[in-house]
Amino acid sequence: MDSLAILLGWPSLIAALLLAAAGAWFRKPIPIWAGLVLTLPMALYVSGSPAYPFVGVFPVLALAVSAITCRWPGRWPSLGGVAVYAIFLAALAYAVVRQPDTPYSAISATVPPVNRTRSSGFRRNTAFGVPPAAQIVSKVSKVSSMNIAESALCPSGGTPPIA
Hints:
Elements: H1 3-8, H2 10-25, H3 29-47, H4 57-69, H5 76-98, H6 113-116, E1 139-141, E2 148-150
Antiparallel strand pairs: 1-2
Helix pairs in contact: 2-3, 2-5, 3-4, 4-5
């Protein structure tokens, strides 16, 4: 397994959770800060989502609050930050498990299977299947409740000169 994948993947997040929990329990901020550093790649990755651009801030803030409050009287403020981080990881794991098995595509799951298995969309109007010197336009297919853009090669304009 690639070392970068290990650094960015679930093993590092679980290690971060264990480090943070141990640091909060024993009132040592260094393991919590180390867990925060292990969490940063995932936080940056999750923050890149266009739908939820600031979600990655929450686990970092939770661990930072836990590290800052670990010297306060009582363990509960620091353990509360670790609990927020654990809930975030559980929600992230649930989202990963519940995502569809199909690869990401522009066609939604509501499109009938017949339309998904349609040919590649190329129109073969010439001898070699490629219209020479033609403009390429895209057509919109309204098959489901949402618009799906399919790229189809359709010549527009006049017939090109034959050399």
